[in-house]
Amino acid sequence: MRIRGLEVLDLRFPTSRTNAGRDAVHLDPDYSAAYVILRTDGGLEGHGLTFTIGRGNEVCAAAIDAFRHLVVGQRLSDITEDFAGYWRRLASDSQLRWLGPEKGVIHLALAAIVNAVWDLYAKSERKPVWKLLADMTPRQIVSCIDFRYITDALTADEALEILERQARTKADREAELLRSGYPAYTTSVGWMGYSDERIRALCREAIAEGFTHFKVKVGGRPEDDRRRVRLVREEIGRDRTLMVDANQQWDVAEAIARVGDLASFNPWWIEEPTSPDDVLGHATIAKAVRELGIGVATGEHCANRIIFKQLLQARAVDFCQIDSCRLGGVNENLAVILLAAKFGIPVCPHAGGVGLCEYVQHLSMFDYIAVAGTMEGRVIEYVDHLHEHFEDPVVIRRGRYVAPTRPGYSITIREASRLEYRYPDGEVWLEKV
Fold first, then answer.
1. 350 catalytically annotated
2. Coil, strand or helix: which one is 98?
3. Apex CA 356: angle with CA 355 and CA 359, to 5°?
4. Which of 123, 274, 299, 316 could form a disulfide with 283 if both were Cys (CB 3.0 to 4.6 A apart)?
């Protein structure tokens, strides 16, 4: 099977009209997808996307197209037989690399392509991506990973050892996953811009749906943060878990003070308390807030496996929040999942965006079956909007992700939605004009 065509679409959903997705830094997000379709001579298609929040999505789309010469004409079997090598060729194109390297728009574009290849690969094997990964041998998984720049923290031999530890009991955990699903937490109760009455109502709805973990956006005025966090704690009670997310709003000293101000509400973690690139700042914050019984979570804006390596080496993070398309697709996420396992840090993916829930469920399910061997201390983020646009949307039952069974990466957007939300000439955007 050979890839014969690459199509790129700029898709945008006007979530800013309802304040869905709003936080202290990103005030008017229109959840968007730079969307790629790989067409083959075998009739199968691989779909992938990278997530943005509106303006600039066209830049990601153009960056995806810039990889065309490394994609069109490739045989799928040649890619999958040397997946780490192919990933490195994408990341190391001698001219495109200058635009990163391995970060920013060019890396987001790489992720869309890599994830589309995995979607195609899984469809060709007639398995969902989580199952495709879980069925691989430890050596096959290791062969997908580019270990360049991380061998001072994790070698291929160490990764192999971690995977071999769990290999004999994978079937037991797969059966448990299919029985009980994977724990989720909801962010949909706590967006900035929601009224107090709406937050209370959403908390009650989420409790009725079986959720036990709730996240609130903070980073506004201190008195507003305290009020909103207090009312969520009042609604969910002391036995359920509360997390707070500052979305990079604070400097280091300010973050420590502001988290201290919220400590009486017993948050499990503070997410993105400062700049995502500030490894030492995160380490300073983590050391201070651990004394309050609060962990630090970050990762949705970590550009690559090297930043994650440093966060883990510096003991700057207590929860590793991989992102399916901020990192360079499945392959680089495998590297970070194994790094986190070596350092004993739970993986709790970021999924606050269009398609991200569909994506990351596969990675967490693989992590449980083949790497971590436990769901304890692990949850996947869930937001409750835009799933209706996907052919294989996530299924949440009693606050848990149900393992997908359809082949692929669950990321194919319905053709009707692609037409309606294409920017700038889709129906939803023409109506605005």
1. yes
2. helix
3. 90
4. 316
Mapping DSSP onto H, E and C, the string for 368-413 reads: HHHHHCCCCCCCEEECCCCHHHECCCCCEECCEECCCCCCECCCCE
DSSP state of 367: I
Note the pLDDT tens digit of each residue in 269-300.
999 999 999 999 999 999 999 999 999 999 99
Phi-psi region of 367 (alpha: psi -120 to 50; beta: other; left: phi over 0): alpha
Active site residue 217: yes
Q: Is 254 helix (H, G, I), strand (E, B) or coil?
A: helix
Closest CA to 273 of 309, 293, 306, 300: 300
| Mean pLDDT across the chain | 96
Which of 123, 350, 362, 389 is flagged as catalytic?
350
Ordered structural domains, the chain, with CATH:
3-145 (3.30.390.10), 164-416 (3.20.20.120)
217, 309, 362, 389: which is the annotated catalytic residue?
217
